Amino acid sequence: MRASRNEYRAGFYCLLALTVSVGSRANSEELWSRFRGPDGFGKSAARGLPVDWDDDTLAWKAELPGPGASSPIVHGDRIYLTCYTGYFVPGEPDGRMEDLRRHLLAFSLKDGRALWSQEVPALLPEEERIRDHGFAASTPVADDARVYAFFGKTGVLAFDHQGRKQWQADVGSGTNGWGSAASPILYKDLLIVNASVESESLIACDRRDGQQRWKVDGIRESWNTPVIVTSASGRKELVVAIYGKVMAFDPDSGESLWSCATDIGWYMVPSIVAADGVVYCLGGRSGTAALAIRAGGSGDVTDTHRLWTSTKGSNVSSPVVHQGHLFWTHDQLGIAYCASLADGKIVYEQRLERAGQFYSSALLADGKLYYLTREGKVFVLAARPRFEQLSVNSFSGRSVYNGSPAVVGNRLLIRSDKYLYCVGK
Predict the structure, then answer these.
(1) pTM above 0.85, yes or no
(2) What are the backbone angles phi and psi of residue 381, rounded to the nearest 5°?
(3) pLDDT tens, 119-152?
(4) DSSP 3-state helix, strand, coil percentages of the chain (rounded to 5)?
(5) Side by side, which strands form the sheet with 256-261?
(6) What structural domains does the chain harbor?
(7) How far apart, in whole angstroms, are the C-alpha atoms of residue 292 and residue 224?
């Protein structure tokens, strides 16, 4: 039986709707709306990102009202970023603590035009000095309804996309000389915050109103952003590194699932990455500095699920996983590393010329590794188990670059203490 013209038309529109739906889902999954991208692992599926650039080839740059170590995020046609003003701003008189303000900023993705700025007074007393990182180190996170910013003891705040404050939640009153750095993440209807500095806890709030849904204590000396890992069985696990341990929790309830000793005798800063049900963690300055753990265990899994340890790692910058290898740069030594996921053995260890320090986390995109130094150099390497440097790019002017790059389309977003840059066509 031959189909009628209306049936053909109906079939065509069903196919078109399915195509649009799949495309929209792909775009949504790629949305760089949180720290280190869609899954927090510093990877992008984007193609055609720039390899070489200078100030003359920037799409645009926007001046910032103050410094910050947070990273830019993107939602829709807007970029969101935090900074601070009024107190202990590098290059300026110290000022008064009473004048400390955090800012949540919104910019146009198209041209970098400032759209709005929300100013948040600090809950005092704050730390008198925050070494290196300042008072705005946590990257915001966004969904279709709101943008969420974490400002340490001042709390977690939610704003709608027009900049109107929706709620504010208290997660503790502690401070630290290194500041507060972990970034909030979203999971289902929850917003999850590593409040190690503020209350030595992991806290989940209802993202609609900020009400606390669960809390886990004992999160000590931990500056890393939690990640959601899928075990081999398909179970979702909320994983975070603390002093001496990597720990996993049920993200719906906060119930403890497993813990694993790291043998790292230091506070934990780099964010965890995962692939194929295995967790990879860096940290520390000497001795054991990296390890791999198979997710999916129960209780203390040190003897059963810890796959390997290594003395090569980083104390600040986070790694990426790609095609059976772990890539990262050392925060102080200016060395780029590639290690085998199977056993942790170093494949290459290459000093980058005049690199300086790396606080920014690694970015993987289009088969390339992007490593941003604190002085504003971007080393672009081939993402393969053989060292190959493709380019070195620098931004003019003296500033500090502590945030990690974000990806949108075929462009990079990079922030310094003074500017937000859009790199690419």
Answers:
(1) yes
(2) -120, 155
(3) 999 999 999 989 888 999 999 999 999 999 999 9
(4) 10, 40, 50
(5) 227-230, 236-242, 245-249, 256-261, 299-300
(6) 29-423 (2.130.10.10)
(7) 17
